[in-house]
């Protein structure tokens, strides 16, 4: 079985303001680390290099092992991974293994779980692959800049009994802000991005290239692993003429189902595993279109059908994935923790409106909500920070914070998160996966396991999990400019 995208060819232009010639763009293969027990000692070198996102020119970027994305690391569930990291950058860095339930000392958060890896220094990460699924790795030091410069890569942990497909393919979606000359724009962490919806770029890549086509064959069944490595862009992908089936979210199996409204939505850091049957005609093309931002739709890539079918129709193989060993939370007996997000442009108006709505005839619990939102408003007006969790803005530079929540180990907990802002926030919890149990008071249909949940403006989302991984853990918005602007906190499991 081929794990990697077949090359597909021709042109693709910048999706917005940057202009370029894209003749001959290749759909790249991801360099892989074979999943054999003898090869689980992997070396990653973070360094400045040059890449070609859009032909004909190259540009400077920050890379793992000289490529963007970094090498695809593959191993099997239950195996152990040891990664030796060499920092050849001009500044400190770390690696966070996003979505993987690692021991606290391996989580890669500077000054919280480890000392940052200094320039010219090394560090070894080592952990067991407890859960199968689609994960990824990236820095947690100055992540709003280091990720935007190209430091990210996929981590695939294969099931012992994977679903049967013709190809297992990874698409790592990147978002770049390029200048007219084709260089990465240096306006990292600017005030406008922090206070609005983050650093949304003008160039989208798949596996480090701007492609025109992805080669497929009629009758083929593909497992497509989508990873959103953008610092801020949310994707809503429409596979026109095809019927993708969601089989995993954030690496965790879910009951196979069609995506809501036909769109596969991924906030920053989120992953979706799809089964797609190639049912188009031989020799045809079908566009994959991003429709998340109204009025800013664009063609991401074309599915390009070979002239020779693989078979007349796709096979009817089973779709369900085996469950991972996650402890089931006891929602009814779990203590509740209220978390309110405030701040950002227009945040004062939203928080005031929500506070007034919740305050009218509210119970004591809802009044607590209102007080938290109003406190956040007052702090926003008197602080240089942009974003707040329960009225507190974090210092992104240090990550060294007192825990906001104290959760008893091996107990079930519910966290009710209210987005009292005008912007979307993909909220990520480190060290744990959680069930998304309700949105705006309505139970979710699939009770899905995730580690990053996209919370819409004015929305309340409840999650539940067993706090079984001891230590001090981050939770934060994965719009990385929002994190840099204060939307980050710590929960302690002890």
UniProtKB/TrEMBL annotation:
**Where does the sequence pass through the membrane?**
none
The answer to whether UniProt assigns keyword Cytoplasm to this entry is no
Q: Does the keyword Metal-binding apply?
A: yes
Which PROSITE patterns does this one have?
A: MULTICOPPER_OXIDASE1, MULTICOPPER_OXIDASE2, TAT
Sorted alphabetically, which InterPro entries does this protein's record hold?
Answer: Cu-oxidase-like_N (IPR011707), Cu-oxidase_2nd (IPR001117), Cu-oxidase_C (IPR011706), Cu-oxidase_fam (IPR045087), Cu_oxidase_CS (IPR033138), Cu_oxidase_Cu_BS (IPR002355), Cupredoxin (IPR008972), TAT_signal (IPR006311)
Signal peptide region: 1-37
Q: Which UniProt keywords apply?
A: Metal-binding, Oxidoreductase, Signal
Database matches in Pfam families: Cu-oxidase (PF00394), Cu-oxidase_2 (PF07731), Cu-oxidase_3 (PF07732)
Report the residue ranges that make up the Plastocyanin-like domain in this protein: 59-159, 168-280, 387-493
Gene3D superfamilies per UniProt:
Cupredoxins - blue copper proteins (2.60.40.420)
* Name of the protein described by the UniProt record: Multicopper oxidase family protein
Organism equals Sinorhizobium garamanticum
Q: What is the lineage of its organism?
A: Bacteria, Pseudomonadati, Pseudomonadota, Alphaproteobacteria, Hyphomicrobiales
